[in-house]
Amino acid sequence: MYKKPETKQEKYVGFPMKMNAYAHESLFIEKKDEYAFFLYFILGKMSQNYWAWGNFETTVITLSKQLPIKNKETENRKEIRRLLAVLNGRGWIKITFDDDSFEYDTLLTIYMVDLESPLVMDSVSSDNYKHLGYQKVTQEMFDACKGDPRHFRAMIYAEWRMFRSKENEGTYRISLGEWEKTMNISHATAVKLIKELDELNIVDKKRGLMYQDVSGKPKLETNQYFVVSEEERQKREENTDANGEPMAKEVNRYLSTAEANEYVTDERVKETNLFNPDRSVWLNAYDMYVFLTTKCEATLAHVNKRLDEMDKSRAGTRKRLEELGYKEKTKRDNETSAKIAVEEMSNYYVDSENTISEQDYAARYARSKANREAKAAEVKKKEQDELRLSLINEEIAS
Description:
Blueprint: E1 13-16, H1 35-46, E2 55-58, H2 60-66, H3 73-90, E3 93-96, E4 108-112, H4 118-121, E5 124-126, E6 129-131, E7 134-137, H5 139-144, H6 149-160, H7 176-183, H8 187-199, E8 203-206, E9 210-212, E10 218-220, E11 224-227, H9 230-238, H10 247-261, H11 285-293, H12 297-313, H13 317-348, H14 358-397
Antiparallel strand pairs: 1-7, 2-4, 3-4, 5-6, 8-11, 9-10
């Protein structure tokens, strides 16, 4: 299973993708052990030497200096030793030593897994996902993640799913469910992770397009992900707008909005800012009223996503905007009710042959209003008289 290459290899570390095979406990790297991805890369680099390619000698003390995880040195060494045991237990490395016990200063000989072995190359399944082979990971990819092992793991997975130099290169779509399971994280954490990767120019997220299924119902494609090269990352840092947003992302946002706008079925939406991609334009009361009352599925899907993103940036934003919309709805409902009442009153005073004059209508309406007010005053006086009589009776009784 382990071998020493006779010739010098390319400058990369091969990561077995079965590290993400979540249905196989003997292979899978759990969330609590995600720093093992950083450690594996460091071990892989150390194994690329001229004396014994594929294996090397080291100690926990040496490795601890190269990978700071904990603040205290003793705790860091303890964590390094634990992660070495995790990788060894999964078969991704093999550790040997001559001492009687595995101490921090014990001289270890570490062998990296043979990337052409069945352990790496044979396919395994986790639900509908197959994992096999390995991904070439460079120093550039390691550096881009700036000490975040979860970003590093996600970057490796996204690059593997690109299927470079294959017939289906760049066509695979990673669902949120796949991110959650392979990364061993919750739905909310997966959403947060994807946002971080996109904002940090580590992995680009290309939103899926709107389309209609066989029944004509609007649907949204699963997103695609593309690892950003170091060269492209540097260009983006040089080309940002006044708000610090990369121009490429701004263009992508405008295009995604335009695609979604094609499936709008509610004409009122076109008079609002609901599909305005300009982040400096806020939603107003009428915008939210239309959102709360529309039945257009494309609008609901697009605005819900927009409101969720706004709420993540500033908690409570969605609630405040919805309250604004409900107030506008109440206002409009009241105006509609008043209009209906006036129309009903107008219909009531229509003569069987001819419509009454405006003067007659005004006079009749005034008399009707006076009668209603008189009746209300009479009822109120009666209630007051009954209350006064009740108090007198109570006083007499006492």
